Amino acid sequence: MSLSERLDQIPPSGIRRLFELASRYPDAISLGIGEPDFDTPPHIREYAKEALDLGYTHYTPNSGLQMLRGALAGKLRSENSIEADPDRNIMVTVGANQAITLALAAFLRAGEEALIPSPCFVTHKAAVTIAGGSAVEVDTDESGGFSISSESLSRAVTKKTRCILLNSPNNPTGTVLSRKQLEEVATVAVEHRLRVISDEVYEALVYDGNSHVSIASLEGMADRTITINSFSKAYAMTGWRLGYIAADPASIEKMVKLQMYLDACPVAFAQYAAAKALGDPRSRKATESMRIEYQKRRDRIYSLLRGIRQFGVSKPGGAFYIFPGIGGMDDLRFSEQILEKAHVAVVPGSSFGAAGKGHLRIAYTVPSEKLEEAVSRIERVLPGIL
Question: Where residue 26 sits, what CATH number does that domain have?
Fold first, then answer.
């Protein structure tokens, strides 16, 4: 099957669709796009200006600037307990979305399967299709906060299964997998000789005193795991399009080759700014300030949604999403109705896989007063929708 034919199989993004519809209403409150409402910290912007003045306007190595790969090796060691050689185990990418496609293309063969806990981020299934594989959704346990069990994963394994694609903290549910849960996933991966692609872009946004754990740091998982991350969420750098991958040398070599023909390299001055940001203590302070604010918003939106009798809601442990159930109502119709009647944009849960049906993804990336106004609007129009 050609790439053109694979693209025909991928449905349009439900996220973008609602975003475009929301643009028709000037007073709309958008809780749809998962983007920080904070600007990139000033000192990181200054580093980008410094890079331009220093002449970082040319191609870099296909794997990224050595100074950035070196800084990332230190970050991975200190924050993720991952040992990575900057010259053999790390590459810089044009965002995490591209990184996921590169990772799958490095080893997935035509028709092979990738297990994806569902609900799942829209890019994950699409990337599997683009790479020529088949995405297999594995339902999570909603009553357990959308956690994945080793039993569910094991039942889904077939002779065609090659990998498990994880996302913790999770988009769209906000679920954070504990060390014990990750150890269970690792056991399945080792038993069935599977790779793990671990999307950890929300690692800095974990609440209630809990910590993020990288599955590559667990025993026996270093060479089996492709770890993907980015600067978009932790540093509010979505528009900079800068991500990175840590993996075994053979996989990195293949992914660098593909990046060479796709993009050549990420933007040079953005890489310089990111490298400097990693070594600047102001970056950690800025990230922590955002995390604290997101946790306050998480607490507020959770409290507000619990007050809606028709909704069922789990308290998310990370990221900046909450994923309420809407009492068996059609999520696509419901999201369209509240946009039309209340001018509030949310994403229907079915956009995130079959297990998301009957839910909404709400991004709390607006100030608390906006969240309160949005829920108030929904409550006002709810009798006319039911």
Answer: 3.90.1150.10
